[in-house]
Fold this sequence. Notes:
heterodimer; A: 4-stranded antiparallel β-sheet; about 20% helix; B: Arc Repressor Mutant, subunit A
Amino acid sequence: MSSDRDVTRIVRSWLRTDEHESADRVLDTVLVLLDTTPQRRPWWPAWRIANMNIYAKLAAAAAAVLVVAVVGLMFFPRNTGVGGPGATPSIKPSASPLPTPTPAPSAAAVFPAAGSLAPGRQSFTENGIAFSMEVPVGWSSSGIDCPQCATNAGWISKGAETTPGAIWMPIWGVKGVASDPCGHVAAPAAASAKELAAAVAGLPGVDVVTPSEDVTVGGRAAKHVVIRVRNDIGCAAEQFYMWWDTPGDFRWASAVGQTNRVWVLDLNGRRFWIEAETYKGSSQALETEIQGMIDSIQFD
Amino acid sequence: MDTDLVIRAQHGDKGAYALLAAEIADRFLAVARRILHDLDLAEDATQQALLATWQDLPRLRDPARFEAWSYRLLVHACYAEGRKVRRWAPNLRLLSVEEPATDDDLGSVVDRDQLERGFHRLSIEHRSVVVLHHYLDLPLDRVAEILGIPAGTAHSRLHHAMRGLRAALEADSRPPVREAAQ
């Protein structure tokens, strides 16, 4: 009788039979086609800060400062949030001291510079909403990663992506979810925070860990929902599109089994969304850490 | 893999991607040919995967994971090509293993034709696991990550695939009279 080891040896030997396989012809075709094949730019940014060396971090930090200025000058005036008019472009000098709407529009998007974050209170803006939050030890910032995005900004994180000790906390507005995550079909924009939280809970391919519930964030009434991406989603995690901020720009899953905690609220006509993503094997300590950060949020 | 090349290509540097593609193209074709067992289909899958890699590179969060990520695109391109030409059975079909061949039998029948017949009987999903694990030497948890399936499913697919290949080898090694008797 042949053993499993025999069969394995035979199969491996057969698979490795040396054949001349040159992809030169294919490569030539591909290189020609590159000129007419645009890259798909991500709404959701690459999470690479943790892998940067110190020089790259410094460069990224410098770039982030520059980006903040560019955002303020070029993009912020076009900022449009769901449920209300865009923020008044406060970079334009005001002739008269008109009352400032609440939340106050910022002169520029605020986000910690790219790199390691000093523990303590950090300031952010999302969708024109200014807020601050206590950040514990061990966190890094992406800096503003998508200056062209209407609701910019970036994310903060700790640990290596998709590992049990990691947390990813995007500071990035969301307007709707996917109706078919693997098919990349968007559901209509949610009309309210309540509707959006319900839509998150109803996302196909996820298990609801905590149904939409009433909570308080920064002293404001908010909705909180927790979901977990199933193992059998039917497509690769990065093909599993979960929610979106502008039509066609989805945020996708990092890994099956990930848990997403979402807090969403409506604030004077603007939508505020914050979430925290953890991965298989994450500990209760991470849960506590996340909740502590959310509890520390203060709206300016 | 040169992570700097990956990062440059992510930012739209076509020259960097050309170097990257040249690095991976032959291996892509080799993997695709083994999964699809057809050179024309394998070339099409390789082309699609290389283009998809270029298109989606900005979405890759961690450049250090480029290799696994790109293999995933390749396997999906193979699935797409495989769907275009359904020449093989869609599901694994196990042969009887009730009358296994002897070592001597096995030694006498190990050749390409028998393995290719056995391989044809496997679904493309099972072939992919075999190729990634036994050709690329990737551990099964990595295979699972590339294929976007749970590790247990990868183990299961490999087990069934190897069982099918073993059965194919042993069935083909039996004398014709015994095969006819079954």
